[in-house]
Amino acid sequence: MKHLSILLALTALPSLAHAQNAQETKILEGIDARYDETASVARQIWEWAEVGYQEEKASGLLQQNLRAQGFKITSGVAEIPTAFVAEYGKGGPVIAILAEFDALPGINQDAVATRSPIEGKGAAHACGHNLFGAGSLEAAIAVKKWLDETGTPGRVRLYGTPAEEGGSGKVYMVRAGLFDDVDFALHWHAGDENSAAARMTLANRSAKFRFRGVSAHAAGAPEKARSALDGVEAFNLMVNMMREHVPQDSRIHYVITEGGTAPNVVPDFAEVFYYVRHPDPDGVDAIWKRMEDAARGAALGTGTEVDWEVIHGNNPLLVNETLAKMVDAKLRQVGGITYSAEEQKFAETIYASFDSPKLKLGSESEIQPYEVTLGYGSTDVGDVSYATPTVGLQTATWVPGTSAHSWQSSAASGMSIGFKGTQAAAKTLTLAAIELYSNPELRKEAKAEFDKARGPNYEYKSLLGDRDPPLDYRK
Predict the structure, then answer these.
(1) Interaxial angle between packed helices 129-150 and 416-438, expressed in degrees from 0 to 180 and rounded to the nearest 10
(2) 138 domain-assigned
(3) β-pair type (198-200, 104-105)
(4) What is the pLDDT of residue 16?
(5) Whole-number Å distance between alpha carbons of 190 and 320
(6) 136-145 per-position pLDDT tens digit
(7) pLDDT computed for residue 58 by the predictor
(8) Is there a single domain that holds both residue 280 and residue 330?
(9) Mean pLDDT of 170-180
(10) Looking at residues 169-189, what average pLDDT do you find?
(11) Is 250 helix (H, G, I), strand (E, B) or coil?
């Protein structure tokens, strides 16, 4: 009788697998059926192009769609008006899906294949966060439907996370404890390739250094003046000399945000906005202390005063290979992007504008090899990855060879190439969530890797300190 029971159980396995595959196929077909809705959300957020902490319309649109699907919404979390958490389901596990929606200031481009700024528009989705928000929205809806149809216990949460670009919105949400009961977090990003590589990032911190001097007529009474701009320039000179004497993987960049208004008026105020990056948070701290000393020295040498405000700070991504390999498999199941004839023409025109692109046109249909890599960007997803096991991917929402923060990325983010890549991301996230709900052994292995990577005595430390969210940093 015992042998008969085992035989019956083994015989049932193929039918169970078939049923699960049928459910997944149905869910993926549902994502395809909602293509127009997802593309509409992505395009609307692209048109608004709201910068960090000012994304009222984008945040509202995502919440509206989630509310219509039965999600419970908590708005204005972590003292951020545009941040929210939307939840559906009951019991556990709790799986978070991250959604970004802020635009970049200082860049502008229509959704066409040649350089074409839109008059009067001062920001654009040149990092594809309009796609990020829309794709994560679709994934959350698809997972919700799967939970309903299968009766699986678990909760799916969509985290509306504003101001990733220099505002560290997720850091404040982590700091507020909003991820304390999350079992796993999923995210994705727009890109020029399909990849689920375990990509580490750099830790970073930014601040606005503000110099104050004495104004006077530059020709009539220069001896009475102390130029705040001299302070900024002296500071920049010293930091630029530091570049020779910092670790190789460090990055330092700046922009002078205010330097005066007229050459014949010595400016009594000037401001420079700095970023510092390093693979390790302690490396950021070490460089930062030297920068602070340089700022004080520049002020002393120019007879000015200086203070600084830390704007944001992100920990590096803590990769989880157990989850990354699983997501890589799901991405390969979904597959790459296929262009229509019109999209191919668009892509060829864009591709011709690149200088020595690293990827070939046509690679949008491929999945890049799985590997562990170091990327030189930074993201506030890093702080989430220290709060809960986290995994992400990118899809070819842009023409292969496109750089983020470019007019070419903004162009593709507003049209069907971007929307197709968004669909691929939504499908992959959905399959990954289903696997996590269904596979307790995977959950156990991923959490064991997470605990080992953080260490037994880990304590979370934010690189931006205890400051409040800088809600006006883009104003």
Answers:
(1) 40
(2) yes
(3) unpaired
(4) 53
(5) 20
(6) 999 999 999 9
(7) 98
(8) no
(9) 97
(10) 98
(11) coil
Is 30 contained in some domain? Answer: yes
Q: Which domain holds residue 220?
A: 203-314
pTM confidence score: 0.91
Task: Say yes or no: 271 and 136 in one domain.
Answer: no
Q: What is the CATH number of the domain that holds 84?
A: 3.40.630.10
How far apart (Å, rounded) are the C-alpha atoms in residues 464 and 315?
A: 10
Over residues 418-427, the mean pLDDT reads: 98
How confident is the model over 44-70, as a mean pLDDT?
Answer: 98
Please tell me whether residues 339 and 194 are part of one structural domain. yes
Check residues 82 and 22 and name the one with the higher pLDDT.
82
With a cut of 80, say whether residue 134 has pLDDT above it. yes
Question: At residue 161, does pLDDT exceed 90?
Answer: yes
Does residue 5 lie within any of the structural domains? no
Contact (CB, 8 A) for 208 and 196: no
7-11, 27-31, 166-170, 456-460: range with lowest mean pLDDT:
7-11
Are residue 241 and residue 127 in the same domain, yes or no? no
- For residue 74, give every residue at least 6 positions away whose Cβ sits within 8 Å of its Cβ, in sequence order, or none: 84, 85, 86, 87
Specify if 264 maps to a domain: yes
Domains identified in the chain, total number: 2
Of 370, 371, 372, 391, the closest CA to residue 445 belongs to 391
Domain at 248, CATH number:
3.30.70.360
> How does DSSP assign 402-422, residue by residue?
PPTTSHHHHHHHTSHHHHHHH
Q: Using DSSP, state whether 121 is helix, strand or coil.
A: coil
Residues 6+ apart with CB under 8 A from 337: 194, 364, 365, 395, 396, 417, 420, 421, 424
Instruction: For residues 65 and 142, give the distance between their C-alpha atoms in angstroms, rounded to a whole number.
Output: 13
* Residues in a beta bridge with 189: 394
C-alpha span between 375 and 317 (Å, rounded)? 10
Tell me, yes or no, whether 165 and 30 share the same domain.
yes
Q: Are residues 310 and 333 in the same domain?
A: no
Q: What is the CA radius of gyration of the chain?
A: 24
